[in-house]
Design brief:
The chain is an alpha/beta fold. The chain contains nine helices and eight strands. Helix 1 crosses helix 2. The protein is globular. The two termini are about 20 Å apart.
């Protein structure tokens, strides 16, 4: 099955208004171009150097989304062009994004990554720390950062009930924060290749799918 065929199969399963992030990390530019030619425009990368290199040679209307853990000293590599940083997991990172976005006179969309999974190794804010940070008014002093919503990665398990618990928790957090940020807070980013049909049941507006589009990683 071609990338185009896989994309069309996935698009057919997505309700209106749900965005697809094609997770292109570790796949070569040629395969991203194939997905682009099929009509896909949002692509997700986890390494700033890799994203910057691909952005240099691929079509300029691609919307690049940083989906992996981002070190503060790497923000400057993607600040000139990145559409969304979907893995903001600390106050230090938020402050650095504001700083770098201001240098380029840009507003960068971000998602707040919240830790709800059982694994301690997964990234993300502790929910109580995030509540306190938001309550402090910190984001009100970041005119070049636009908080669009929240993101999480569910527990890596075959137990569907645990996955559903994680998605319910993050949906509750999304609903809790939405009144604080207003109309532009519209993105609940949950669901990947294996669990996105469940995520859609919990109101996901953005799914991140790689393997089901590109197959196994090439490097």
């Amino acid at each position: 099955m071609t990338i185009q065929e896989r994309l069309h199969r996935i698009w057919a399963t997505l309700p209106e208004g749900v965005q697809l992030v094609a997770v292109s990390k570790f796949h070569p530019a040629e395969r991203i171009q194939e997905a682009y030619d099929a009509g896909q425009r949002i692509f997700g990368e986890s390494r700033p150097q890799e994203m910057a290199a691909k952005a240099e040679i691929l079509p300029k209307d691609i919307e690049w989304s940083m989906i992996g853990h981002l070190q503060t000293n790497k923000v400057k590599m993607i600040a000139p062009f990145v559409s969304m940083i979907a893995s903001v997991d600390s106050d230090r990172l938020a402050v650095e994004i504001e700083k770098q976005a201001a240098k380029f006179n840009r507003t960068i969309d971000i998602l707040l990554e919240v830790h709800v999974a059982d694994e301690e190794t997964k990234s993300g804010w502790d929910i109580n720390e995030l509540r306190a940070y938001i309550a402090s008014g910190a984001f009100e002093s970041m005119p070049h950062v636009r908080v669009r919503g929240v993101m999480t990665i569910a527990t890596n398990t075959d137990d569907e009930q645990i996955i559903r618990r994680d998605f319910q928790n993050i949906r509750d957090i999304f609903n809790e924060f939405k009144p604080l940020f207003g109309a532009t807070f519209d993105t609940l980013s949950i669901g990947m290749s294996d669990d996105y049909p469940i995520a859609l049941e919990y109101g996901s507006t953005m799914v991140r799918i790689g393997t089901a589009i590109f197959g196994q990683r090439e490097y």
